[in-house]
User: What shape does this take?
Amino acid sequence: MTWFSIKRYLPRSLYGRAALILLVPIITIQLVVSFAFIQRLYEDVTVQMTQNIAIEIDLLVSTLETAADDETAVAMLGERASALGMEAVWPGQAVVDQRIFYDLSGRVVQQILSDRFSGLAGVDLRTNDKLVQLAIETARGPLELTFPRSRVSASNPHQLLVLMVFTAVLMTLIAYLFLRNQLRPIRRLARAAEAFGRGRVEPYAPSGAIEVRSAGNTFLNMRARIERHIEQRTLMLSGVSHDLRTPLTRLKLGLSMQEPSLEVDALLKDVGEMERLIDAFLDFARAEAVEELAETDLVELVDAIVKNAVRSGKDVEIGSLPKEPVQLKLRPLSIHRAVENLIGNAVRYGSRARVSITVLETALRVSVEDDGPGIRPDLREEALKPFARLDAARNQNEGSGLGLGLAIAADIVRSHGGSLRLGDSADLGGLSAEIVLPL
Assistant: This one.
């Protein structure tokens, strides 16, 4: 059973939700106050005033109908109408019901007078909005009466509504400006956190409310700890690798001076394997090393990597590339290392590789495909971890790697705010490694 959820219709941003929280109570209060105002002033007060004027109209009609002759009727009617603040014309002209569509009190006036006088011909509230004209059929013919509109309804009742709406708009504007100032520090913190997640360090100083300042200070402390951790890890691995190179070099030099034999060849092979391991450690350490961002044409960079791989004897081909340059803020050496690692893995576990670049709506995708055995879907997440050796899923040839190629590439891509995805190659039948970077 599908339940109705209001979440899909709500704004997704904090700014939109805060504005909604601000506007809903204001609009609700406006509606409630407007309803009460219309109910009390437009209807109740108008009803009372119209009933009072109806008594005076009834008096004039009675005066006209009970007069001894026409001259007496005209004299008495004029005298009493003038005393009551009305203008009476007898015999009068025909009057039809007229009012402006938004004249709410006029509807009440017409309804009450129509119910009170069965001979009411019409009530005109539109010809002159400051006067009320009506015609009543009497025993001596039609009687036309004219009196001020203020006698039956409150004068200018819309002014209160206009003032109320104006005040609401003004207060909403003030609250909007205040809300924007309160949300600006949160947006600055979000931009700084997003930039740091993409490997950029933007200047940030905590500001705003106490809670926002606390979150900002916590973010700065966290960023400093992460930077120190990366720096210490890089220095540690670099130092260990440097310290290991010296004894390895002495071993290699000593073994090279020995008489050739199977034992010496095996030891030299072990020393070479250790050197490869040290180089892999250094590459892994450099994956998060600080490198300045620079505007880089990714198409040109990938094309140069592929051509360099072809010159080194690898069977690598270019797939589809954008015709126009694609400029992104990247760490060129890091991206170069990531793509190079993926190509190296592709040609190590397969016979050939294909590199393609696709520009999506909000991201850019660099695909490296091979014709090797691929990686099973349940092992792909494990393959992105450091020192993962999935020889059961890939071929087990000698020197198949140290399990750092994909991990280094994944770390580099994540430091740019992107992701490394593993899948199946539809064309070559092997593994498809995709670097997805946000535009």
User: Anything to note?
Assistant: Residues 14-66 form the longest helix (53 residues). The two ends are 40 Å apart (CA to CA).
